[in-house]
């Protein structure tokens, strides 16, 4: 377990060492090259968004979220002693998510503090559900806080636990399937995207805007991810009906495991596509050379789950290694997903994109919760 824990931390140190300097460079370049342009009330979000995207992940990778991985690696030692549970509780996770709220509010409307659009409410709920799912996933098999925890932390934990009980894996799978179905029926362009008549948005305005290779890849990747999400959503509904919405049956179903792996793969593709396309779009006018760096990072982020899977199966196999690999993946992609969710409020006028993105990730969170449940005992 110590070797696995060191490897897990390495997966966080490396992107922190890459994204942090990139964020500093973007801030310095924007404020230096842009002159007084970025100080305008209408244009300062052009500096805020890339700064949040590049500077917040290193903060989360180095200061807050790794505490959950450290506590997971120490859990076996703590169970054998009288020491309190090293788990830091839900407060660092919730504070990490709260960092992205100002950007989400800003993207939700021109005057968000006067009249927040009602369509932004589902995105705020998605953030809270993410907190509940991540809290359950990162804490693992010991959901209760020690008695020494502060009152506010225990109250916050109870709220998250109550949310998890209201939204168990079957509910998340059903909600995700419904949102994806609504995205297909709410916009005629959805069918045009699937049959190739319309180009995927990130192929036009993201990484594919000035990189022909990226345009070709994303033109196929976007419809593939969306079409695959629709197929997996339909399969999830069938699986729910066959299992009669039973968590125990879903947990032992091989079909659910296969669907879960496919759904998580598509969710990772969606996270990476939107995150790096937003960065390329936001920095392209003044810093066009960065788009090739983002294009390279876009591919490298696909390899992380493969490395984690190989690392989890190396040495002595066991559920502890697998769960630590899942926790590491959750921590690794959490800052990217939070930025994507915050920027998704920019598309509130287009129900297709918001519902498609959130629906896919609700499916993924449902499958992640199933994967983190304790294994049933063999009779």
Give a summary of the structure in a few sentences.
This protein has helices at residues 2-33, 45-64, 66-79, 91-98, 101-108, 121-139, 151-166, 169-186, 189-194, 201-205, 212-243, 247-252, 254-283, 290-313, 319-344, 351-372.
Explained architecture:
The protein has one domain. The protein has helices at residues 2-33, 45-64, 66-79, 91-98, 101-108, 121-139, 151-166, 169-186, 189-194, 201-205, 212-243, 247-252, 254-283, 290-313, 319-344, 351-372. The model is unreliable at 74-85 and 111-115 (pLDDT under 50). The chain has 16 helices and no strands.
Number of domains: 1
What kind of sheet is the major sheet?
A: none
Radius of gyration: 21 Å
The helix content is: over 70%
**How much strand content do the residues show?**
under 5%
What is the string of helix and strand elements? HHHHHHHHHHHHHHHH
Primary descriptors:
mainly alpha, 379 residues
Write the layout of secondary structure elements.
Layout lengths: L1 H32 L11 H20 L1 H14 L11 H8 L2 H8 L12 H19 L11 H16 L2 H18 L2 H6 L6 H5 L6 H32 L3 H6 L1 H30 L6 H24 L5 H26 L6 H22 L7
